[in-house]
Amino acid sequence: MRDVPVTGRAPAPDLARGAALLLIAVANAHTFVTHRGIGVRAYPLDPTGVDAWLAAAQLTLVDGRAYPLFALLFGYGIAGLARRAARDGAGPDQVLALVRRRGGALFAVGAAHAVLLWHGDFVAAYGLIAVVLAPVLVRGSTAVLVLTGVAATTLLALLYAPVALTRSDAASASPSLVAPDVLSAAVERFGEWLFGNLLISAVGLLGAAVAGVLVARAGWLDAPARHRRALRRVAVAGIGAGSWAACRWGWSPPGCGRRRSRWRSWSGCCTR
Length: 272
Prior knowledge:
Elements: H1 11-28, H2 49-61, H3 66-87, H4 92-116, H5 123-132, H6 134-139, H7 142-164, H8 182-218, H9 228-250, H10 260-271
Helix pairs in contact: 1-3, 2-9, 3-4, 3-8, 4-5, 4-8, 5-8, 7-8, 9-10
């Protein structure tokens, strides 16, 4: 299968991927702060001053935004890959095999990244989705995709809420970050990734990935000017709803402890 020439690429998804990667880096920066306790979403307990303001803004505007965007673009990419392969003459089984090969490569790269550098890797989760659910992503009907996305998002909420709201005085939510040596850190990272992050990431990314397949089938990102009204409505509704839902967390500091009353007036603006 041939690579897509630069002139044949849709610029909107590429720009969105770049923005998503930048926001993912911002969203995870606080997880590398150690020995400050663990608050909501692994923020340090009871931040003060500029730290508190930045954490509040990040909880409201950044956290939980970049991962779904990147997952949506992953689903969009899978749909485009399958469409181009079929157009070049590949049969249905060959298309599925191609998607699974790409997924296997992603899984291998993600596994190496998780063990060598960061347990929070999500590339392997994309690979796992592509390998296991290739038939759903490539051949699934709209109804099947919608049901898959709703089920995955519901399961994510049930699994993740207790973790996100955990408070602890531990040095870090990730033991690998405070391991005494390189080998111990690698062993810890492997365990954190394989038994903690991998499956919950796959579940969490699946809903947005199937949404990306639906977006690709609708052609919204291939010709955004033609679908400007629909895209504007989705953007305004999605960003507005996401910011409103995150507002109470964002303006009640990540520690949610001694200083909660100090921020109550801010959170009240979102719930009146």
